[in-house]
């Protein structure tokens, strides 16, 4: 089943009508069987707005707490936070991308904007040039608005903001400005899952599709591999909030061409030697989000550092490991799952970070 062909996403189940309404989240027993700490937050604050200070404002950079690290760096004064970002906006690439899940990439591609730096410090990161290396070009927020419009002009089905967590303070104004100038396609927020609930809430009316990772069920694994102490708790809370925001706006919406116009897709990258944690991740996703569309990926590619260190993360995921995780997703009950066919290592998933489209349209001659 996993052999042959090029790497691509396959829809394992044809059913694609899941609805992220509140009733679905709660279940027949009012949510007691699925409830967790994250879900209580939703119940206490059903509109998701009360008591939330305006986290996403440009002034927040004077003592940055945009991401769950809340490191307090004075980015406004030029200090870099743990994420590596200061007050400047840096983008590494802005171009059509055809390797996201089918409801995101469609036939014409997703208009991806890859932001430089990242709050997580994943030792196996496949985008390390931009996440830790800081590769990218400094642009103005106004240029980000133009980039979104140019990607739409190129035919993008959506604008796919990849790891914008540490630039979230710029997004409300940029998205509103782009909308005012004719941006009509959905905004996809493509994230590691390490997000503050408050930020998700403030973006709830602006982001249409949450394309969110759920990396680890084990806090220890998060600590060891991504250098954060609290990944599972944070990821559950932010995922619950994303589902709540989509439910508040009327639930998932998929158009006649199968493109997601509103909703949540939860991604999980299976890591070599950690299939047990992957199965726990799926259990957690189910408890938090119910029958949400999931994307279980086997594209793990050991980077040079992992190859040098050796051990389990120096190899790809085996077919057997991947099958174990996929089978567990079936057992849990997910009805919409994307999975990948073919070998694990394929460079097509890692686009060239060559600043394409950052300073001007990628097809502007
Ligand atoms: S976004 Fe960066 S600077 Fe801000 S709290 Fe997170 S790590 Fe610190």
Polypeptide structure, described:
Pfam families: Radical_SAM. This protein is α/β, with parallel strands linked by helices and 365 residues long. It has one domain (8-349): Aldolase class I (TIM Barrel). Helices cover 31% and strands 16% of the residues. It is built from 12 helices and 11 strands. The protein has helices spanning 22-26, 37-44, 102-105, 128-131, 141-153, 171-180, 197-203, 219-226, 231-248, 275-289, 304-309, 319-332; strands at 8-11, 89-97, 110-115, 137-139, 159-162, 187-191, 209-213, 253-254, 260-269, 294-297, 337-341. Strands 1, 2, 3, 4, 5, 6, 7, 8, 9, 10 and 11 form an 11-stranded mixed beta sheet that branches. Strand 6, helix 7 (197-203) and strand 7 (209-213) form a beta-alpha-beta unit. Helix 2 (37-44) packs parallel to helix 9. The longest helix has 18 residues, at 231-248. 48% of the residues are buried. The model is unreliable at 1-7 and 14-52 (pLDDT under 50). The structure holds iron/sulfur cluster. Iron/sulfur cluster (SF4) binds at residues 64-67, 69-71, 73, 75, 81-83, 85, 119, 166.
